[in-house]
Amino acid sequence: MGSVRKIKLAVFDVAGTTAHDDGLVVEAFQNAMISLGAVSGSSELANMTEYVNATMGQRKIDVFTHLYEGDSDKANTAHDRFIESYISLIQQGKLKEFDGITPFFDQLRADGVAVSITTGFPREILQPIIDGLNWADHIDFSVAASEVAHGRPAPDMILKSMELYNQKFNTEISPEEVAVIGDTESDMKSGVAAGARIIAGVTSGAGTSEQLFATGATHVLECASDLSTIC
Question: Which CATH architecture has domain 24-91?
Answer without folding.
Answer: Orthogonal Bundle (1.10)
